Amino acid sequence: MKLCLATKNPGKLKELIKIAEEFGRDVSGLELVLAPAEFNPEETGKTFLENAIIKATEAAKLSGLTAVADDSGLCVDALDGRPGVLSARYAEGDDAKGRAKLLAELKDIPTEKRTAAFVCAMALVEPNGNIVFQVQKDWKGSIGVSERGTNGFGYDPIFIPDGLTITSAEMPTDDKNRISHRGQAWREVLASMESKNL
Question: Of these residues, 71, 108, 174, 175, which one is catalytic?
Fold first, then answer.
């Protein structure tokens, strides 16, 4: 089966193939392709799931294939859930600016109140707009006081998963994929496809 991934980012394509292969999914019959060049949906949803559905619907319509999309971000309890769906656009500039802004906002917040969660929503949509499957998964943890690690992107260097003392950017990739929000959600999408014989 050919499945359109609702992104133009080849890095995300490689990541999802790697997770699928690592965790027991036979991907020999699954061909993942990137969204067409004209794919550029407006992410106007108020939730991660709404944005995932918007992206998957647009990719399915443009490609004529069933499409899967994810929308993810970081929700910090002490900031009333911010940056949330605006995680990628939280500060002008690059990822480092977003992390710096977040750490500055939390500078007076004690350790026990720095709880947070990475959230990933995924949606599987057919070309006719039918939503085949949708899921949302959380990866709970807390925000550190400084950046640590280089094996990651976005907020990884300041996110400490529950039960660990290292940031997600200090984790080996395989370990991260096993417990991360995206890894959890993608495995559920693959299991759903398997059960539906897609």
Answer: 71
Confidence of residue 25 (pLDDT cuts 50, 70, 90): low
Query: 174 or 156, which is more confident?
Result: 156
Q: What is the DSSP string of 1-58?
A: -EEEES-S-HHHHHHHHHHHHHTT--GGG-EEEEPPTT-------SSHHHHHHHHHHH
Question: 136 phi and psi, to 5 degrees?
Answer: -135, 130
Residue 70 among the catalytic residues: no
Helix (H), strand (E), coil (C) string for 75-114: EEHHHCCCEHHHHHHCCCCCHHHHHHHHHHHCCCCCHHHC
Give me the residue spans of the domains in the chain. Answer: 2-195
For Cα atoms 136, 14, 141, give the angle at the middle one, nearest 5 degrees: 40
No. of helices (H) and no. of strands (E), the chain: 5, 6
What is 2-195's CATH topology?
Maf protein (3.90.950)
The predicted structure's pLDDT at residue 79: 97
